[in-house]
What we know:
Elements: H1 3-22, H2 28-53, H3 66-70
Helix pairs in contact: 1-2
Amino acid sequence: MDDAALLAHINELVAEEQKLVETPHHDPERLSALEVTLDQCWDLLRQRRARREFGLDEDVVSTRDARTVEGYQQ
């Protein structure tokens, strides 16, 4: 998936997340899953950009597991 496709997917997920949040009785499990997926997508985009910055092949990155991505410190 290239950056444009990844950003389009992120935008779709954000739209779904916002729609869920605005729903009075939204599904908390779906919201939680969306948040994790969004974190994974952002992480993947950061990996691609970092590899590109250093002249490395950006297409060899892969999505990290939820436990890894959710364990990052802010």
